[in-house]
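Study this fold:
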Amino acid sequence: MASLQIVAGDTLPRLVVRVRDRMTNEIIDITGCTGKINYRVNGGAVQSRNMVGLDPPAEGRFAYQIQAADFARGIAEAQVEVTTSDMKKGTSKKIIIEVEEKLAPV
């Protein structure tokens, strides 16, 4: 299981994942594939956002630019889902995202 720590309201870092074969650990070429991140914050409703394939596709990388409103303070659980051009799907293991409260002057 992977983990990431962010601050509520931030838009960095960009979340980048690399797609690998679970059996061989080899990088999968994502040409013709789509990616999305499915997540829920504090046990709430599942949200789904499209990811962008990064060039070159042979390096198997998808990215999602975190939006300020995506993650409230607490714990988010996420999975990345990749769909191939022939509609086969693969889903990552769970990613835990710890979201801290932003400290702001009063």
Remarks:
- The chain has one domain: 2-99.
